[in-house]
């Protein structure tokens, strides 16, 4: 595995204090794939520092790896997430060459709320700035259907509503379809990985399958679909860099395939 250099920390990609990112780089690379990872946290919490292991793992794989924060609900509601993903992409594209990366080989990835933000930015062209180009995207256990999130407590027998989703998507059912990625896909197919975990939150398992089915049957996609055995909602990202290759091995292989296409 390549040696890493000290990370670049708290680089500003926008004016808000949350619009900061860290960059983990292998030593001596040029034209490397660039993996941009967005943490989870239920739309209301979380920080790039909690996934420093992802940065170290990515650099060890030979990827320039970017960990990005984004603005949080309830102060910043839909669509602040995909807007921040687009802003990160723009900044990374401009800076990637100086970090040893290839700006044409950017793969976006996210877990939980981060996956929701990546999915919206990558699958809904309204959020994509001029020149938008990504090599692929990886979605780990994200919510992609705001209406289902609201109905999940009763429909799926979940004991308590997840108020975090209302903090971001809002309380107005008329807006949920607009905020539901599964209903708003209009991007042309690109390499995509969709995953959920064996012991994931039930609504995340359902939405991974729903997004996969919609993309295949309605939009001409051929996504990879992964089911992480032995993992729950929180452990896939935490496992990167450990001896457990359940998540890391296929994710690294996906990044390499997407960037070789």
> Which runs of at least 5 residues are low in confidence (pLDDT < 50)?
none
| CATH architectural category | 3-Layer(aba) Sandwich
Query: Which geometry do the CA atoms define?
Result: globular
Radius of gyration: 17 Å
> Into how many domains do the coordinates divide?
1
Supply the helix-strand structural class.
alpha/beta
For the termini, the CA-CA separation is 23 Å
Number of β-strand runs: 8
What integer is the average pLDDT? 94
Largest sheet: 8 strands, mixed
The count of helical stretches stands at 10
Helix content: 25-40%
> Superfamily at the CATH H level?
Alpha/Beta hydrolase fold, catalytic domain
Spatial order of the strands forming the largest sheet = 1-2-4-3-5-6-7-8
Order of helices and strands: EEEHEHEHEHHHHEHEHH
Residues in β-strands, percent? 15-25%
> According to CATH, what is the class?
Alpha Beta
What is CATH's topology name? Rossmann fold
Descriptive overview:
Helix content is 39%, strand content 23%. The chain has 261 residues and is α/β, with parallel strands linked by helices. The chain has one domain (4-260): 3-Layer(aba) Sandwich (Rossmann fold), CATH 3.40.50.1820. Strands 1-2-4-3-5-6-7-8 form an eight-stranded mixed beta sheet, with helices on both faces. The mean pLDDT is 94.
């Amino acid at each position: 595995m390549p040696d890493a250099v000290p990370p670049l920390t708290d680089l500003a990609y926008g004016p808000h204090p949350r619009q900061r990112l860290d960059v983990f780089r292998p030593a001596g690379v040029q034209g490397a794939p660039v993996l941009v990872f967005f943490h989870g946290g239920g739309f209301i919490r979380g920080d790039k520092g909690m996934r420093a292991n992802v940065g170290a793992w990515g650099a060890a794989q030979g990827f320039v790896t970017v960990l990005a924060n984004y603005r949080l609900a309830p102060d910043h509601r839909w669509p602040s997430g995909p807007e921040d993903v687009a802003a990160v992409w723009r900044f990374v594209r401009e800076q990637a060459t100086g970090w040893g990366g290839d700006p044409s080989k950017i793969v976006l990835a996210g877990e939980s709320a981060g996956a929701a933000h990546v999915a919206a930015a990558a699958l809904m062209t309204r959020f994509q700035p001029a020149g938008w180009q990504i090599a692929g995207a990886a979605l780990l256990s994200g919510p992609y259907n705001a209406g289902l999130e609201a109905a999940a407590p009763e429909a799926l027998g979940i004991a308590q509503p997840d108020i975090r989703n209302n903090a971001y998507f809002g309380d107005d059912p008329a807006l949920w379809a607009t905020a539901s990625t599964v209903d708003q896909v209009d991007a042309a197919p690109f390499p995509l990985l969709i995953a959920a975990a064996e012991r994931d939150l039930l609504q995340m398992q359902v939405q991974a399958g729903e997004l996969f089915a919609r993309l295949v049957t309605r939009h001409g996609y051929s996504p990879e679909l992964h089911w992480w055995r032995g993992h729950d909602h929180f452990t896939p990202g935490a496992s990167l860099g450990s001896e457990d290759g359940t998540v890391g091995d296929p994710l690294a292989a996906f990044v390499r395939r997407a960037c070789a296409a």
